[in-house]
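Final report, closing paragraph on structural work. Over the funding period we assembled a curated collection of sequence-structure pairs, and we close with a single example.
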Amino acid sequence: MRVTPESLSSQEIVRRLDEFELDITMTCVDGSVRALPLYEERYVLLAPADDEIASRSVARWAEVAGGKLAGTGAHSYAVRG
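Its predicted structure, as stored:
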């Protein structure tokens, strides 16, 4: 079986699912289709011990958005400012 990825609008994806032209899809759609999560990801922020953000238990993406995001393994990420 050959899989060919396509870029489609949400409306086109729903239409093609309804017509059985697609088997699966990954997209953001409204509640008109049944959605099942594939997996959950847990992100961990690594920061120098003397950085203000290191003393907190929660950091928002907007607070670290200016830093660099680097994949350091299958499920590990580091943000560096």
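The first helix runs from residue 10 to 18. Residues 67 and 77 are 12 Å apart (CA to CA). We thank the funder for supporting this effort.
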